[in-house]
Amino acid sequence: MDLTPALINETYAAIKSATMRTPTVHAARLSLHLGIDLYLKLENLQHTNAFKARGALAKLLTLSDKERKAGVIACSAGNHAQGVAYHANRLGIPAVIVMPEGTPFNKVKRTKDFGAEVVLYGTGFDDSVQFTLDMAAEKATTFVHPFDDPVVAAGQGTVALEMLEQEPDLDCIVVPIGGGGLIAGMAVAAKSVKPSVQIIGAQAANFDAVKAQFDDVSTNFGGSTLAEGIAVRAPAAANLAIIQTHVDRVETANEAEIEAAVFDLLSYEKIVAEGAAGAGLAIIEKHAKDLSGRKVGLVVCGGNIDSRLLSTLILRGLVRDGRITRLTFEIDDTPGQLSDISRIIGEAGANVIEVIHQRMMQSVSLKQAELEIVIEARDQQHVAETIGQLREAGFKVRADSEIG
Asked: What pTM was estimated for this model as a whole?
């Protein structure tokens, strides 16, 4: 079976009643910030908070009664697992999900909550897929591949149909790439509706297999990535072939850029997005000048980011923006010093978050103390103004941003 516009349209008709028609919204603040006209397809609001539910349902609906009774099996640590589990449970189909042994407990629990049996094996998708195929053969169940299946890719392609129905004037669409199912389906669908629309792929620099194939260069696999949903070493050959013919270009973003983009989606638009979606925005931010004056669509492909990771990311973003800063003082070890410093910071309109008063460090003299104060300010300019007032009062102080 080939991935064609007809298959995508048939699939859309089949899954439409059981999937959410997620909104495509104007990102007003980011548009102003970047100087482009940006629209966000909010698949983070889809069932199980990711586009993967579309492809999973599409595949499940093609099963015969015998296949439904036997059940399905999938291999995934994240969005595909939950998409298969959710729709299998809804349709009364037994489901087994193979997840890597290091999968966070909350992801395992959410998958189990949807009614699936979870089997822990291996260290990642590439390590677990053969085990899953062997189990499928042993149990005579249907293997639902996360991206190497034209029906699954057709389900993902319905995202583009909705985007161009909602915003027909889009000049280009930026799509995150892992195994290639989402961009292959969307590229075929989008080009069939609007041949002039530009499709730009977004990858994490640490997992750039598609970029390497597209540009005919060596791949770069550099460890972990915040965009774990697109951390795929071996994309599907069928998807790669479609990307070569239907996608205009593929770009990569490094980890710092992806992290900043996830923070920007939250800070500017109040949208919780996972790292894969951050990779898409990071590409837009890197190439904003090239996209100036154009109407750009971005697939916010999922919102399943770990809450602890998100909290750390937010704090790091606040530090990066200068809204949280650590000040280091060398003060005389006499009463009233901390009180005076706190008063000046308060009068400057900043807020003290944390205080570390160190008398035992050998970097200062015996009659002095080192004081670290973490403050919250409006921005970097406000930090500079606060430091200026402290120095005017005679305090020797430096900010982390001034070091090096």
From this structure: 0.90
